[in-house]
Design goal:
With 162 residues, this protein is α+β, with helices and mostly antiparallel strands. The protein has two domains: 96 residues, F0F1 ATP synthase delta/epsilon subunit, N-terminal (ATP Synthase, domain 1), CATH 2.60.15; 59 residues. Helices cover 32% and strands 39% of the residues. Strands 1, 2, 3, 4, 5, 6, 7, 8 and 9 form a nine-stranded mixed β-sheet that branches. A hairpin with a 2-residue loop joins strand 3 and strand 4. Helix 1 runs antiparallel to helix 2. The protein starts with a strand and ends with a helix.
Length: 162
């Protein structure tokens, strides 16, 4: 099966995927080869994939933000006779987690983003900027959004380590 994870800043493509596990609104789906076409929003922001590489099974976990999930048996090349199952995930952000993912590194990223948010709030307060200004508000919202993503990653990594 083909697995494609795409975000504005990150792409991951694997052609040797054997199983994908994802939580959708309709429940947990385990996707195997020749699965029915399916589409949905990823509910818990986590997707797990299993693939074979040089006769070894490799498992990867991704933390996602605002992700949609599509399974298609049509393949990318509609003229080809051999149509493989394709799994396409589109997300705002993604972070690959593995056994070597460091909780310390994730915590540092979270703390750096938290510091950036505090600096931005102090700047707004010291310059007496209008908090209703759309530019000021949108920058704060973006930083808070990133902070929330790092919080989710940190929580998942802590769960994996325990």
């Amino acid at each position: 099966m083909l697995f494609l994870l795409a975000t504005p800043e990150y792409n991951n493509t694997q052609s040797n995927t054997t199983k994908v596990k994802v939580h959708l609104r309709s429940g947990i789906a385990e996707i195997l080869d020749n699965h029915q076409d399916l589409m949905g929003k990823v509910e818990n922001d986590i997707i797990e994939i299993e693939s074979n590489f040089e006769n070894k099974t490799e498992k990867l976990t991704f933390v996602l933000q605002d992700a949609v999930f599509v399974v298609s048996n049509q393949g990318l090349d509609t003229s080809a006779d051999n149509k493989n199952t394709g799994i396409y995930v589109y997300a705002k952000r993604a972070k690959e987690l593995g056994s070597n993912t460091s909780l310390e590194e994730v915590t540092k990223q979270f703390e750096a983003k938290n510091t950036e948010l505090e600096i931005e709030r102090e700047k707004i307060a010291s310059l007496n900027l209008d908090s209703n200004d759309k530019v000021v508000t949108s920058k704060l919202i973006l930083i808070q959004d990133e902070l929330e993503f790092f919080r989710k990653v940190q929580t998942v990594v802590k769960g994996m380590k325990s």
